[in-house]
Amino acid sequence: MYTMSIAGEQVGGSDEVPVVNPATQEQFATMPDCSELQLEQAMTSARDAQTGWAAEGDDLRRELMHKCAATMDANTEELARILTSEQGKPMMEARWEVEAAAFHLRYFADLDFPKPEVIADDEQARVEVFHRPLGVVAAITPWNFPIALAIWKIAPSIRAGNTVVLKPSPFTPLATLRLGELFQESLPPGVLNVITGTETLGARMTSHAIPSKISFTGSVATGKKVAASAAANLTGATLELGGNDAAIVLDDIDLSAIATDLFWATFFNNGQACSAVKRLFVPEKLHDDFVDAWVAIAAETPVGEGTDESVQLGPVNNANQYDRVRKLITDAVAHGGRAIAPQDQEHEVGYYIPPTIVTGVSEGVALVDEEQFGPVLPILPYSSVDEALSRANATTYGLGGSVWTADPERGAALAARLESGTSWVNTHSQAPPFQPFGGWKWSGLGIENGHWGLGEMTAFKVIHTKKSSTDTEWRPA
Ligand code: NAD
Fold first, then answer.
1. Each residue of 270-316: pLDDT tens digit?
2. In angstroms, what is the span from residue 357 Cα to ligand 1's centroid?
3. Model pLDDT, residue 342
4. Which end of the chain is more exposed for a tag (fewer CB within 10 A), N or C?
């Protein structure tokens, strides 16, 4: 029985909503449906706990965050097993997600908090700038990395002295509910509330008057709704949204040296990653070699139920996403594309789509123009690097991008011209906790991670003390 964490208590909801295992398509558990009253209780308890939490002092917050990380270590296997059951990812990757999240939590516990800065101190005035907590953070996560992305939000929020009301996706609520329950052992009541519910719960959170900040990760379409909803109360929002990342391969590369890395930069988590490679630009003369290399890797990649330790790719997470990815493939073929899936054997049950490569398509086809968020990749030949760059940038997305080359300097010069929050050279998707992460264009607003991400969970506070009777006039116009 999975319960919500509200005001330090473990509670059921007004109803129980089924949760499906994508490998079996069976309803294997339920999540609580948060009532209107419970949402109020979660928000109020977060608000009431916040002043005390901020006053506790930074050392205690750091200590308790380390305690939470140790709890994650002690429960990695259980959390990973729940994650695999609800998300579909292989156990190996589920364990990695929990471990990476604990590492992330420790990073934020150890990070130096921005110190007060004296920006003027002369005979006329002393001016100091402080970072203060914002208040309550409403955090909303998607279904691809439920635990990791929850920690990306919890860690900087609570370190800065805020309290949190967190809502995972209804497709993957369980590991987050369990995480919330485990963290109650260390955190004071109300500091972290975890609630679950059907689709309207997110909108009720973002239009709520209590949060001072919304930290949202999800699709562009929902992100725009969140921004509109936040406007009603002028609530600040960090939005980490979708991507349609291009990888541009230059003609100097040694294909055998990069093929495996590039394959996994695409199909990691079944392509269900915001900054996975989603369009692959290769020089015309290397196109056929690329297709051959990728088909060979795809043919040998074990696909199946994540609880089987030999599996490297599980099912797609849910029926909607399965239908969407299948439709994108069918549509690409209808537009003259060739879909190559070297192991397209049927599974009797489960939302399985084997790693698929599509050739013979270009811009104007949905698979190229939209975010597929699944295990299918269009391979796009180009004739000049400038052409590849301009096609890579011709999108409303701007999350990530990469350049693959034997010449890192040439790669970095081209990476600088990619219109994306992060551009990698000879790798993709790397997002260590110390590195700022955020999207340009429709891929998001604001930044997570590093001291920049911690800063986003704080408000500037200026104290200007007059010292002289002959004060300089600096009043705003
Ligand atoms: P989604 O937008 O459908 O849902 C995300 C979350 O928002 C879920 O918890 C959902 O219940 C909630 N939600 C739904 N409607 C809402 C509303 N009106 N108001 C508030 N919340 C609402 O996204 P998804 O399908 O769960 O996740 C996939 C998307 O997330 C992809 O586009 C992917 O690229 C993106 N993503 C981005 C990042 C990043 O850091 N930029 C990371 C992971 C995933």
1. 999 999 999 999 999 999 999 999 999 999 999 999 999 999 999 99
2. 25
3. 83
4. C
CB of 128 within 8 A of CB of 118?
Answer: yes
189 residue type, one letter:
P
Q: How far is the CA of 142 from the centre of ligand 1 (A)?
A: 4
User: What amino acid occupies position 411?
Assistant: G
Q: Of residues 34, 86, 274, 371, which has the active-site annotation?
A: 274
- Ligand 1 atom closest to residue 229's alpha carbon, by position in its atom list: 19
- Catalytic (active site) residue 240: yes
Pocket test for ligand 1, best of 31, 33, 217 (most atoms within 8 A of CB): 217
> 305-335: buried (b, 16+ CB within 10 Å) or exposed (e) per residue?
bbeeeebbbbbbbbeebbebbbebbeebbeb
Q: Which residues pair with 29 in a beta bridge?
A: 19
Answer positive or negative: Cα dihedral of 62, 142, 261, 312. Answer: positive
Residue 226 has a CB neighbour count (10 Å cut-off) of: 24
Q: What is the pTM of this model?
A: 0.97
